[in-house]
Design a protein that fits this description.
It is a single chain. This protein has one domain: Molybdopterin biosynthesis MoaE subunit (Aldehyde Oxidoreductase, domain 3, Alpha-Beta Complex). It has 140 residues and is of the alpha+beta class. 26% of the residues are buried. It has four helices and nine strands. Strands 3, 4, 6, 8 and 9 form a five-stranded antiparallel beta sheet that branches.
């Protein structure tokens, strides 16, 4: 399951998409809008995506993870539009027979999203806004 949408993300719903009796581990990652970034107080974020390209790139990332590790299922949902501090921006759920592969795949997926997927983030502060343009800025 890969979804890019302005709708709020239901974390448990994403997690439920990877339920599989073959899995002994499910690792989830939830990216949440934090109040401080680059030393500034964040008021809100705006995510914009080229949805067709972003979905295609996400599918490629998921396919690569499935080939690289022994996994059963992966679900990814990324939000677009205006988000407030505390809102969930992205959820990744990875189900695998064992935890090591699930953790490694989840880390790989979020890193590749930050590096390669055409989803752009603008942060708004008291003194204005700024587009975050590099993976290093996204990892701050």
């Amino acid at each position: 399951m890969i979804i890019i949408s302005p709708e709020p993300i239901e974390e448990l719903s994403v997690r439920a998409q990877v339920d599989d009796p073959r899995s002994g581990a499910v690792v989830t990652f939830s990216g949440v809008v934090r109040e401080l970034s680059l030393g500034k107080k964040v008021q809100k974020l705006f995510y914009e995506a080229h949805e067709t390209m972003a979905e295609s790139k996400l599918k490629s990332i998921v396919d690569t993870a499935m080939q690289k590790w022994q996994l059963n299922k992966i679900a990814v949902q990324h939000r677009t539009g205006l988000l407030e501090v505390g809102d969930v921006a992205v959820v990744i759920a990875v189900a695998a027979p064992h935890r090591k592969e699930a953790f490694q795949a989840c880390q790989y997926i979020i890193d590749k999203i930050k590096e390669d997927v055409p989803i752009w983030k603008k942060e708004f502060y008291d003194e204005g806004g700024r587009w975050i343009s590099t993976p290093e800025e996204n990892n701050e």
